[in-house]
Automatic annotation (TrEMBL):
It comes from Pseudomonas rhizosphaerae. This is Ribosomal RNA large subunit methyltransferase G. GO terms for molecular function: 23S rRNA (guanine(1835)-N(2))-methyltransferase activity; nucleic acid binding. Keywords: Cytoplasm, Methyltransferase, rRNA processing, S-adenosyl-L-methionine, Transferase. Residues 1-180 form the RlmG N-terminal domain. The lineage of its organism: Bacteria, Pseudomonadati, Pseudomonadota, Gammaproteobacteria, Pseudomonadales. It comes from the Bacteria. Residues 202-371 form the Methyltransferase small domain.
């Protein structure tokens, strides 16, 4: 596995979740560019630096000890990667403060380093939240690989921070550097809300929630075919997003108990708020997690899932396959996994390798709803 070498440290880093023969490394040229910038424009040891969206700790662990650091992001797997990589490199797992993107950070910060996320709404909300937390003349330095760095990222820096200057591209990476100009307090457009007609629900969505502006078409295909008559079943919504699957299911199954899990802290925050709005004080467990990795074996009767097919810019079915494996461990014998997926992903054959029975519950021209029985 390649070692991240910078003016600050040499680090052995791994991605999360663990994958045998991992084909991708836990850092890229944009991380290296940010670290080179920090070396060329040093700050005093007492300076306060905020790092946003540091995938697996490459930036924070490299800079550990050179400045006062806080790391913040919306990925549970990113936070887990930070802990594991600290330990892997001989440092205490809790030696860098991590703040979930669903919680505020407290400045003032002398510099902010940003890995531009795939979802620009998340970047916008993060920049908005910096208002009042930047020291005079503080720099916000955003980075990304050129192919993943939209022009709109620079526009957001100009809008919320100050005049932006792009760097030259180095190893297909670029920096966008903005200096704080004391702009007036912005009004955040987040969270957004949309109305579900059947059942009638108003759903709130924080900035990094998938399909924030309206119900995604996969979930729309899934909702009419959610299982009914579940009695006192123990149900999990795996990759819950804003919680819509669990909430609609819970309304139809008043005796069932629910666990909602997502890798995004903002999704978990949205799901918690939506559950409370729709179901009041009805008991529920909502948590950020690595899928069902923390779930006790044979502790669930039903799992509902609209699986993801990407992790940031990396596309593939690795996360879905891992979710299916976790579900098999967590389900009781005779328990059911219900999923919706694009037809072309071929989930039926994948599920048949893990479960004793797989049937098609419903289909549209684009999606299939499947039930897999353990």
């Amino acid at each position: 596995m390649p070692v991240l070498t910078s003016p600050f440290a040499e680090l052995d880093l791994i991605r999360q979740p663990d994958q045998p023969n991992e084909p991708l490394q836990a850092f890229d040229a944009a991380d290296e560019y940010l670290l080179a910038y920090m070396a060329e424009h040093p700050l005093p040891a007492q300076a306060r630096v905020l790092i946003l969206n540091d995938s697996f700790g490459a930036l924070a662990i490299s800079l550990q000890g050179s400045v006062h650091l806080i790391s913040s992001g919306d990925s549970f797997l990113g936070a887990l990667g930070l802990e594991k990589n600290l330990t892997r490199n001989g440092l205490p797992f809790d030696s860098i403060e991590f703040v979930p993107a669903s919680a505020p950070v407290q400045g003032p910060f002398d510099r902010v380093l940003v890995r531009v996320p795939k979802t620009l709404a998340l970047l916008e909300e993060q920049l908005i939240r910096l208002h009042g937390h930047l020291a005079p003349g503080a720099e916000v330095v955003a980075a990304g690989m050129v192919k993943h760095l939209p022009h709109a990222a620079g526009d957001l820096l100009e809008k919320y921070i100050g005049t932006m200057r792009p760097s030259l591209a180095v190893k297909k990476a670029r920096l966008l550097i903005a200096t704080a100009e004391g702009k007036p307090a912005p009004i955040s457009p987040y969270p957004t809300r949309y109305q579900l007609d059947e059942p009638r629900l108003m759903l709130l969505n924080h900035a990094n929630v998938f399909c924030r502006e309206g119900l995604d078409i996969g979930t729309r295909a899934f909702l009419p075919h959610l299982p009914r008559n579940l009695g006192a079943a123990r149900v999990a919504d795996l990759g819950c997003g804003n919680g819509v699957l669990a909430i609609v299911s819970a309304l139809a199954n008043p005796q069932a108990s629910y666990t909602l899990v997502d890798e995004s802290f903002m999704a978990v925050q949205s799901a918690q708020e939506n559950w409370q709005a729709a179901l009041g004080a009805r008991q529920v467990e909502v948590r950020a997690g690595d899928g069902l990795a923390g779930q006790a074996p044979q502790s669930l009767d039903v799992v509902l899932c609209n699986p993801p097919f990407h992790q940031q810019q990396v596309v593939g079915d690795f996360l879905a396959w891992r979710m299916f494996q976790q579900t098999r461990e967590a389900l009781v014998t005779g328990g059911d996994l219900y999923i919706v997926g694009n037809r072309h992903l071929g989930y039926h054959s994948k599920l048949a390798r893990l479960f004793r029975g797989v049937e098609q519950v419903a289909a549209t021209p684009k999606f299939v709803v499947l039930r897999a029985r353990k």
